[in-house]
Amino acid sequence: GVVAFIVLELLIYLAITKSVDGLQRLVDGQTEELSEINETLRQRNRFLDSFTRTVAHDLKSPLTAILGYMKLCHTLPTDKLDTHDIATRDIGQAERMNRMIGSYLDYAKAGEGTIVAQPCAIVAIVTESLQLVEHIERERDAQVTVELEDLLVAGDYGLLVQVFLLVPWLA
């Protein structure tokens, strides 16, 4: 009886050891697979960050030239009010686009982890955010008024503007 019990314990031990070894190999294989997937995701994320910066830069360069030209046209004397109004509107739209592209660059910086918190005036952030969504006010026939103390907060100006851009959509 004792020998049979010892043999049975030995067989159980060997079965458990074999199962543990099999599970360990399975875990090791899955861990390796997850590591490869994570590296692929990191590479794709780096590519997307690079792509975002490239697109934003490629859009920002000609936009800067357009803005400069439109501002020059705006300063020229004209007897046609329509031309002046068009130039004023186009300058506003080009500046809006320029800020949006700047935001894309900020998001690219966020993906790289290169954002540096700096003192930002909350009134300036809210004012710029409201300017970017003034069309919503017109569409909803609403008027937004804000009364704030000029507080300083630490953060990235462009990303904080993006946060405040969400406010009209939540109202």
Structure keywords:
mainly alpha, single chain, 80% helix, elongated, two-stranded antiparallel sheet, 171 residues, 6 helices
Could you give a short description of this structure?
This protein has 171 residues and is mainly α. Helices cover 80% and strands 5% of the residues. Helix 1 runs antiparallel to helix 2 (81-112) and helix 3 (122-132) crosses helix 5.
What is this structure's SSE topology?
Elements: H1 2-75, H2 81-112, E1 118-121, H3 122-132, H4 134-140, E2 152-155, H5 157-165, H6 167-170
Antiparallel strand pairs: 1-2
Helix pairs in contact: 1-2, 3-5
Describe the structure.
- The protein has 171 residues and is mainly alpha-helical.
- 80% of the residues lie in helices and 5% in strands.
- It has six helices and two strands; from the N terminus they run H-H-E-H-H-E-H-H.
- The chain has helices at residues 2-75, 81-112, 122-132, 134-140, 157-165, 167-170; strands at 118-121, 152-155.
- Strands 1-2 form a two-stranded antiparallel sheet.
- The chain is elongated and about 115 Å long.
Q: What is the global morphology?
A: elongated
Major beta-sheet overview: 2 strands, antiparallel
The N- and C-terminal alpha carbons lie at a distance of 81 Å
Please count the beta strands (DSSP E, at least 2 residues each).
2
Oligomer description:
single chain
- Show unreliable segments: none
The rounded Rg comes to: 30 Å
Number of helices: 6
Structural category:
mainly alpha
Strand order of the largest sheet: 1-2
Order of helices and strands: HHEHHEHH
Which strand-content bin applies to the residues?
Answer: under 5%
Helicity range of the residues?
over 70%
Calculate the mean pLDDT score and round it.
Answer: 77
